[in-house]
Amino acid sequence: MRRRVFEITALIAATALMLTACSPAAPQDEAKTLKVVYQKTDSFSALDNLFQAAKQEFEAANQGVTVALEPIQANDDDYGTKLALALRSPSTAPDVFYEDTFKVRSDVDAGYLLKLDSHLEGWTDWDTFDEGAKAAGLADDGGTYAVPLGTDTRAIWYNKKVLTAAGVSVPWEPRSWQEILDTARKIKASDPSVVPFNMYAGKATGEGTVMQSFYELLYGTGSELYDADAKKWVVGSQGFTDSLAFLKTLYDEQLAVSPAEALDANVWKKVFGEWLPQGKMAATVEGSYTPSFWQKGGSYEWPGYAEDMGVAAFPTQNGQAPGGVSMSGGWTLAVGAGTKEPDLAFGFLATALNRKNSLAFNIASSQIAVRKDVAADSGYQAANPFVKDVSELVAVTHYRPATADYPRISAAVQEATEAVITGAKSPEQAAADYDTAVKGIVGDAKTAAK
Amino acid sequence: MATTTPQRLRTVNRLHPHLRRQARLLPVLPAVLLLLVFLAGPVLWAFHASFTNAALTGRNARSPGWVGLENYQRLITDPVLPLSLVLTVVFVGGSAILGQNLLGLALALLMKRARRPVAAVVGTAVVAAWVLPEIVAAFAAYAYFSRDGTLNQILGGLGFGQPDWLYSFPMVAIMLANIWRGTAFSMLVYRAALDDVPGEVTEAALMDGASGWQRLAYVTIPMIRSSIATNLMLITLQTLAVFTLIWVMTAGGPANASTTLPVLAYQEAFKFGDIGYGTAVASVLILIGLVFGAAYVRLLRGSKG
Question: For residue B62, what is the nearest residue in chain A, using CA coordinates?
Fold first, then answer.
């Protein structure tokens, strides 16, 4: 009896194997299909709307072409991973995809992106793109591999009502780190239930920790992460330790959220969705896209945000020139290197980024426009009351070093902040461990002590 | 076996004995092939990748190179690895070998004695956690242990303190969750094993004046020894591979306090795109699994002798 069972099992297995071997007969002669991959989350649907519109427009203009939209439901980190996994194999690689600016260079090195120079030559819209923004898609070989959708800056967002209640006059324009601490302590003394000044820390918030917190501090000390001229990573800087010490002060004195809250990957949802609108948080450091959450149709609609909220530049350590610090990133669209239809793929990219679609997307997601015609549009300028303020920060902004090592370095920085706010290490010790980690990642020769 | 031999087997029987044996192996071949393709293949691929600098992005993604033992050398000096090894052993030892195993045995013994409706209710409650898909169970456990979660509401109601479990005691929370999720498997294995223990033997021991504990230690346990070894092997290997539960509950944090080897391997391979190094971590995990497996196989052999 046992043998019978065994034989039947084996037969089933054999059948399954044969079926797998001969099933998928891929339709090859059918209409051309463009596969488009991008990110979509519950709180970020502006991109989905952009691609839906572009798909309609493009399909109408190109008979016989189908645009297959394949949104990936994931946060930034996981989206990057899933996209990279898809790009590894020609059978899963998309034709057009949404690509983080800081990944462009390493993905070009990996051979995932198509060089767009010849296509851009024939695209008149390309002249309307801001020169600085064009650099986002530039690779080491001087070629352009991606076209930016928009850019962003970071600033302090504060609730005027909470500040006024604590006796702080608005508009609030802190000139130094000390002024931030003084104000935060004042707010804390006036109402202990309020979170006075939040800055992200720890690995849970991923790039948010460095882009919306640590780098604002670090680049305001005169130090930097990477010496682009010498092509070396900076280690042993006083600025790094000072930045960690500032975060430690914020968390130790309970001026920011509790460390446990900071290490929850969803903490930013509470910042946007609960604490700021409900007046339980006085200020936080966040991106220029902040109003997109509160606008009509955003994930945390808050009609009063325009009156209640204020925005200020993040100050340098002691108020030294240029007086403010900001970080910029942003996303691009790129064409897969292995696409069978490069012309159609670029055509779709151009449709998605034409004036009409760019304008709608920049407004819906509170992006800083990279097309001059969009930036000059009255609809864009009137989209929210903060467009002007956050756009001006482009003058004092910094970009991340987009090398292949960067993600790991960023993780080492996040780890240092986590060690400090949880009390596991002192700022000096965490900075020293960061230096060791960096040397381990890139090698001694590619680091420089400053 | 049926009295009439089916036609097919009779044909086979007419063949030369040597050929006959091979012909009987033929139907197994596809299954073996499947195992090779889907099990041995990835394992071998992982071993191979761990000797390269393959990456998700950057130059090494285009043309990964052979780096020999470099990844393993790096592994030895990685400060996170010792912590990760200890956490993995604590996790497997605490939640599988002790937690799931002993609790499963205890539940099986209790249910054998309990009245039928009680046994049914307990059985259903325990199996329910096991039936949940891992991701659902993970979210349930997260909701239970989180700061404003069920556990803290109960503790608060009883007037106790409300620690932030996932932050202050991440490993405790994860181990409890894994015990909750996996005990049903051990319980089912032991229930089946206990049913196979002949009543006469236990009765004889009872007549000889053996106490409950003595009967358990000298009669029941030795008789179900092979089930114990099988169960230990399966739950050890299952628990070694647990990823979703930990990833959802703590993502390995805070400050690596719950980064077991699977979490570390995932972080290295996919978060940092360093596939070569990540597979080196995974290879260590496979080796640990092999060591455990070999130990249990020895235990099984011993139980038959």
Answer: A110
Peptide linkage before A427 cis (omega within 30 of 0)? no
> Does residue A122 contact residue A137 with C-beta atoms inside 8 Å?
no
pLDDT at B292 over 50: yes
H-state helical runs in chain B: 7-14, 17-25, 29-35, 41-49, 59-62, 70-77, 80-91, 101-113, 116-131, 134-145, 150-157, 165-168, 170-196, 199-207, 212-215, 221-223, 225-240, 244-249, 261-266, 275-304
A371 DSSP assignment: B
Distances (CA, A) of A47 to A39, A44, A50, A331, A352: 7, 7, 5, 11, 10
Task: Check CB contact of A9 with chain B, cutoff 8 Å.
Answer: yes
The C-alpha atoms of residue A326 and residue A283 are separated, in whole angstroms, by 16
Which helix or strand (DSSP H or E) is residue A388 part of?
helix A387-392
| Whether the Cβ atoms of residue A307 and residue A172 lie closer than 8 Å to each other | no
| Beta bridge pairs of residue A232 | A227
Q: What is the C-alpha to C-alpha distance for residues A225 and A28, in angstroms, rounded to an integer? A: 49
Q: Does A415 contact chain B (CB < 8 Å)? A: yes
Q: What is the pTM of this model?
A: 0.79
Give contacts of A16 with chain B, Cβ < 8 Å.
30, 34
Report chain A's mean pLDDT, rounded to a whole number.
90
| Predicted confidence (pLDDT) per residue in A16-47, tens digit | 544 444 444 444 445 789 999 999 987 788 89
Q: pLDDT tens digits for A44-77?
A: 888 999 999 999 999 999 999 999 999 999 888 8
Cβ separation of B270 and A81 shorter than 8 Å? yes
Distance CA A101, CA A144 (A): 12
Residue type, A198: N
ipTM confidence: 0.74
A230 touches chain B (CB under 8 A): no
Q: A182: which 2 tokens?
A: 């003084």
Pair A405, A194: CB distance under 8 Å: no
> Measured between beta carbons, which residues in chain B are less than 8 angstroms from residue A112?
57, 61
Backbone angles phi, psi at A176, to 5 degrees: -155, 170
Cα gap A425→A421, rounded to integer Å: 8
How far does the CA of residue B185 sit from the closest CA of chain A (Å)? Answer: 24
Q: Residue A99 and residue A84: Cα distance in Å, rounded?
A: 10
Pull the structure tokens for residue A136: 């986002």
Residues of chain B in Cβ contact (below 8 Å) with chain A? 1, 27-31, 33-34, 55-62, 74, 77, 147, 164, 166-168, 251, 253-255, 270-274
Q: Is the pLDDT of residue A223 over 90?
A: yes
Asked whether the bond before B64 is cis by omega within 30 degrees of 0, the reply is no
Residue B128's Cβ-count burial label (10 Å; 0-12, 13-18, 19+) is exposed
Tokens for A385? 């009351």
- Nearest CA among A250, A242, A195 for reference residue A221: A242
- Output the average pLDDT for chain B: 87
In 3-state terms, what secondary structure has residue A254? coil
Q: Please give the Cα distance from A246 to A174 (Å, whole number).
A: 15
Instruction: Tell me the shortest Cα–Cα distance from A107 to chain B, in angstroms.
Output: 5
**CB count, 10 Å around CB of B31?**
18
Q: Which residues pair with A331 in a beta bridge?
A: A100, A150
Share of chain A above pLDDT 90, in %: 71
Q: Are B57 and B266 in contact (CB under 8 A)?
A: no
Q: B136 to chain A, minimum CA–CA distance in Å?
A: 17
**Residue A330: closest CA among A360, A281, A288:** A288
